[in-house]
Amino acid sequence: MVSFAIILLFSAIMGFSIYLSLPMVFKSGTGAGVLKLLNAGAVGILLFLLADIFSNVTPIIYNKSLYGYGSNPLYDLVFLLSFSAGFLILFFTEHRKEGVLTPSQTAFFIAVGIAFQNLTEGLVFGSLGAVLGLTGAAVVILVGFILQNMTEGFPISSPFLGKLEHREWQMMSLLFLGGVPDIIGGAVGFYFNSSIIDVLFDGLAMGTILYVIIPMIRAIFTEKSQYLRRVAYAGIFAGFVVGFLVNLI
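Predicted structure:
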């Protein structure tokens, strides 16, 4: 059996791989077309992440527990309430004031959504590591989560592209917020995990990410330039494909 310290170490590696997106974000002198492509790519990654999170929830919800058919009413309720909470809390938070989300607010909400999802990743890794050790399925999951977190760091950073303006510390702290739940999840999952907790945090993640995606899509399609609109379509497609390919590993 692997030790608790080892689980924490690899959970930290998994979580902080989110910082590997920084070189692209800190790059200066990026043209308008490239910025549009990168921002649209972040939307594509988030769209894939929504589908990926729901694919993790469906085996728990749709388990034929209702007389051999359909879904589990308890898990249905937990998912619906947590998804609604993730979406509606942000909705009422934003609409208490006038104006659109600032880049900092957008990045914060993205980081919160990814944090919820990474918490469930940590729970899965911690519980599997406790049972199987760092062999077989646990290692595959570890590598997969590290690669996925590398792509997740980019959507958090994307609102700052081309407009950091000495706010690097703010972006770094938001990346920390997105990555550190892997460590918390790994620590808790080593001793305890349950399906209902996974459904709860995945629902919160989906509600939060869905809310943030809507204004991001609206923003990248405000350009009158036909060229930039085509770039936006290409970026969303490319981001989704990148998320898919990374998830295959």
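Summary: The radius of gyration is 18 Å.
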